[in-house]
Amino acid sequence: SADVEHAETAEIVHRRSSTRLTRASLRLSQSSQESAPTAVAASVFSSGRRVTRSQQGAANTTAKKYPLRQSRSSGSDTEAHDVKQGADRDETPPRTPTGNAPSSESDIEVSSPSNDLEDERLAKELSLKEAAAHDLSHRPKRRRFHESYNFNMKCPTPGCNSLGHLTGRHERHFSISGCPLYHNLSADECKGKASTRDKQAEERTLSHRQDENRHSTRNQAPTDRQLRYKEKVTELRRKRNTGLNKEQKEKYMEHRQSHGTSREPLLENITSDYDLELFRKAQARASEDLEKLRLAGQVSEGSNMIKTIVFGRYELDTWYHSPYPEEYARLGRLYMCEFCLKYMKSQTILRRHMAKCVWKHPPGDEIYRKGNISVFEVDGKKNKIYCQNLCLLAKLFLDHKTLYYDVEPFLFYVMTEADNTGCHLVGYFSKEKNSFLNYNVSCILTMPQYMRQGYGKMLIDFSYLLSKVEEKVGSPERPLSDLGLISYRSYWKEVLLRYLNNFQGKEISIKEISQETAVNPVDIVSTLQSLQMLKYWKGKHLVLKRQDLIDDWKAKETKRGNSKTIDPTALKWTPPKGT
Fold this sequence. Notes:
Blueprint: H1 2-33, H2 37-47, H3 53-56, H4 77-89, H5 113-134, H6 145-148, H7 187-212, H8 224-238, H9 246-259, H10 273-295, E1 308-311, E2 314-317, H11 326-329, E3 333-336, E4 343-344, H12 347-356, E5 365-370, E6 373-379, H13 384-395, E7 410-419, E8 422-432, E9 439-441, E10 443-446, H14 455-470, E11 475-476, H15 482-502, H16 510-517, H17 521-530, E12 534-537, E13 540-543, H18 547-560
Parallel strand pairs: 1-3, 9-11
Antiparallel strand pairs: 1-2, 3-4, 5-6, 6-7, 7-8, 8-10, 12-13
Helix pairs in contact: 1-4, 1-5, 14-15, 15-17
Organism: Oreochromis aureus (Israeli tilapia)
InterPro entries: Acyl_CoA_acyltransferase (IPR016181), HAT_MYST-type (IPR002717), MYST_HAT (IPR050603), WH-like_DNA-bd_sf (IPR036388), Zf-MYST (IPR040706), Znf_C2H2C (IPR002515), Znf_C2H2C_sf (IPR036060)
Keywords: Acetylation, Acyltransferase, Centromere, Chromatin regulator, Cytoplasm, DNA damage, DNA repair, DNA replication, Isopeptide bond, Metal-binding, Nucleus, Phosphoprotein, Transcription, Transcription regulation, Transferase, Ubl conjugation, Zinc, Zinc-finger
């Protein structure tokens, strides 16, 4: 309807402009041949047209050469014929009725004011409709080829050139899910299958529209079309071969030996052609969904960077890369069970897993409980899968972590917060079973949803509590992450200020502080230097007792309370043998 209205409006404007320009051309040609002012006046009066004031007084001015101003619409045969005749008769510029060329300020008006207003309104409407027709701002911006694809990335399938796509709708691919070669197909075969799927979808839509005309009842009998389709599917499944012959088995074995896991196994004759085609459609649909996520920026190309994880009732943005298996890493989002830490691909799989998962707390022994805070000791040798999943999870938020799969020499201390649904992971730290440098922490992490709530200092305090029970002096393993260094510096500061507040003597020893707090002397000295409490005077090192820092610490302790502290009496633990 918009196109028809647009054509009618253009035709009206074109017809009126052609008529006006024809009359104006005739009148101007007559006025150029007649030099008598009276004839010009009679001509103007008889045609009912008006002459502007500037044109009446233009006889005494110097003539300027200007081309004839044409109407807004151009292209009619009459217009071209009249203009050509005028040019043949006189090659000089057209004159006004006064005999002079039109001035730059005003020209002859050869239409009435009412017609001008109407023409301007129609022309304005026409221009607005044309602008709306060509306006593509409401459409999504189409990505150019070089913007959609990163040519530095390649498909991980050996021998693949990254051309084509399993869906048949894209020119390139960068993952196994969209690789035609991995699925034992070519790019042309994928395009042919895509066109076939489109035709089937159109036929299905048409049949659904025909079925919508039927009255919907609760116990509705199937239509003839549905019965025929059911018989067709039954016949196709009946034709399936019950087994593989010797040649097919040899072909399959040769394919497996030559390609291994780098190619999909041959699927022909394993099931019916109908079921195999359904499986191919499902693969193409999943690959198309992944491609949409990649173009939307939710899946990064080739870097296997997991951007978000669904963990319990939280959705967490990751910070760093973690070496999850490729089929999980390329998804961009992982779904995790917060109790057993198993990672899954979709929300549906997670929901089914949660219905069957019997874990409500970490494996291992509960060695500390106060209120709703508990700490579990997990042996990396006894619970290898859980500890590996914990390390992979921690790597998403730690930059310097290098331990992923070799978890047997380590003990993991997992802190949880309990409610009526189970014990939720707050954080953890790991330590070597036999550390020659007396490291009491190898890796420490507080989950992002529990950061800045005091749980990090509780984990650090708990690690030093274990060192006190072992009667050792501990220190964290280097290098520390940025957040880890901030947490440890804050903890060491509080320990020293608490010790100096309770100290009543005049002479103090770094060794005594280390033995009482289980903090390494190197860490004590570095903390005193950062607080500007260690001075060298007359050949001796002096520790300054800065009362201003102690008063600030007291005020913060009073304001914070004792809710996020470790109670040594709640620990039920004996050091493992051999440590």
